[in-house]
Amino acid sequence: MAEPVPTFVSHLECSATGAAYPADTVQGLSDAGKPLLVRYDLPALGAAVTRADVAAAPDPGFWRYAPLLPVRKAANRLSLGEVTTPLVPLPRRGAKLLVKDEGRLPTGSFKARGLALGVSMAKELGLEHLAMPTNGNAGAAMAAYAARGGLRATVFCPADTPEINVREIALQGAETYRVDGLIHDCGKLVGAGKAEQGWFDLSTLKEPYRIEGKKTMGIELVEQLGWRLPEAIFYPTGGGTGLIGMWKAFRELRELGWLSGPLPRMVAVQAAGCAPIVRAWENGETHAPLWENAHTVAAGIRVPVAVGDFMILDAVRESGGWAEAVDDAEILAERDRIASEDGLLLCPEGAATFAAWRRAVAAGRLAHDAEAVLFNCATGLKYPMPDLARPWPAGDGTAGG
Ligand SMILES: *Cc1c(COP(=O)(O)O)cnc(C)c1O
After folding, report:
1. Pocket mutation for ligand 1, best pick of 102, 301, 331 (most atoms within 8 Å of C-beta)
2. Domain 87-108+211-382 belongs in CATH node 3.40.50.1100
3. Which residue of 11, 27, 322, 323 could cross-link 268, Cys pair, CB 3.0 to 4.6 Å?
4. pLDDT tens digits along 192-239
5. How many angstroms is it from 255 CA to the middle of ligand 1?
6. Does the 111-201 domain belong in CATH 3.40.50.620?
7. Are 85 and 101 in contact (CB under 8 A)?
8. Domain boundaries, the chain
9. Strand 175-179 relative to strand 265-271: parallel, antiparallel, unpaired?
10. What is the pLDDT of residues 103-133, one digit of tens each?
11. pTM to 2 decimal places
12. Contact 113, 78 (CB under 8 A)
């Protein structure tokens, strides 16, 4: 028998009311219909584990943060070869501009972090059949980790989800359905079917553990920078789990005394065709109502309504950050430019963060040489690319130039 991993979870807490719920039992949303957050006994954690212990753990990827995560039994930690994702500088753009390239993770996106935790906890709690709506990357990560853990998976995708995502999800063993609608329509199908089908709903923030996986982006960034943070973080925001998760990580690390210096300004980046958080931020609202007729090439951030909207807006405001929308033409132009001139093929969502950084510098919101981290959340290889090659021979005498 594997030894239980020391973990310091004390309870779950409703993100809206603060009401406490027991850990180690299956939980979805709180009674108030809001996300539940995992709380830890941080004094006990700090007394038992140091940041040097964590940094020295043998796992190359996020499982080395196991003491700050909820999975108790090592045997339940599902792994597909996670790595520490690199901080790739873009020195020709900004002196201290770094891209955290999450496309290097299993299944080619940072959804691996959240789903590795979500599926591992589902396994630990004895769940057998998981379901979720997806714009592509989350479904792929759930399918892969569920296959690894021997759990069943059912996935609903909007019909116009990038084809490569739909195929990879199905190939990795999930029952996969194309739906005539957007992600929140797919979410309704999961909600409607779960009682009858016995599915557990692994939708963004509808269970407490995916966010704990996304939290590891924040811990990893802090560790990589020498236990401190940059001046600003640009995050492509859909459901916002990553932004909320990193903010949670920073507060926990600060409470542990593992983090020195100020917290960063958190910048929520959205596409102009689907910008509910930007609109709510600009209007000074606490919640972000549904965005009608959402459309953008950046499929990962095409989320018209987010259950964690108030937490995204809180983190952005509390950090002195802002929210910015960029349009698809700008996203693709930046993607193409960074690929051809800097040799880094970003996903459209990642390119959106660069566009937002450039705007912020042009508007004087952020110094050109301020240390800033952009999140490239998936490999650019998963998205349609322009066909720039020419036939050989060209047949008109111009080839070979
Ligand atoms: C899911 C996803 C996002 C949005 O992440 P959230 O944390 O849910 O806001 C951004 N980019 C890509 C590539 C994604 O797959």
Report:
1. 301
2. yes
3. 323
4. 999 899 999 999 899 999 999 999 999 999 999 999 999 999 999 999
5. 27
6. no
7. yes
8. 9-76, 87-108+211-382, 111-201
9. unpaired
10. 999 999 999 999 999 999 999 999 999 999 9
11. 0.95
12. no
